[in-house]
Amino acid sequence: MSQHLSEQEIIRRDKLTQLEELGIDPYPPEMFEVNCNSLQILKEYNDTEKNFQHVSIAGRIMSINPKGKVTFAKIQDEKGKIQLYLSIDNLSPGEDKTLYEKVVLHLLDIGDIIGIKGEVFITRTGEITIRAKELKLLSKALRPLPVVKVKDGETFDAFTDPEQRFRQRYVDLVVNPQVRETFIKRTLMIKTIRDFLNDHGAMEVDTPVLQNIPGGAAARPFITHHNALDVPFYLRIANELYLKRLIVGGFDFVFEFSRNFRNEGMDRTHNPEFTVLEFYVAYKDYFWMMDFTEKMMEKMALALHGTTDVPMGDKVLSFKAPFKRVAIHDAIKEYTGFDVESMNETELLGVCKQLHIETDNSMGKGKLIDEIFGAKCEGNFIQPTFIIDYPVELSPLTKKHRTKAGLVERFELMINGKEIANAYTELNDPIDQRARFEEQTKLMERGDDEAMFIDNDFLRALEHGMPPTSGIGIGIDRLAMLMTNQASIQEVLLFPQMKPEKSE
Question: The domain 7-145 is classified under which CATH number: 2.30.110.20, 3.40.50.720, 2.40.50.140, 3.30.470.10?
Answer without folding.
Answer: 2.40.50.140
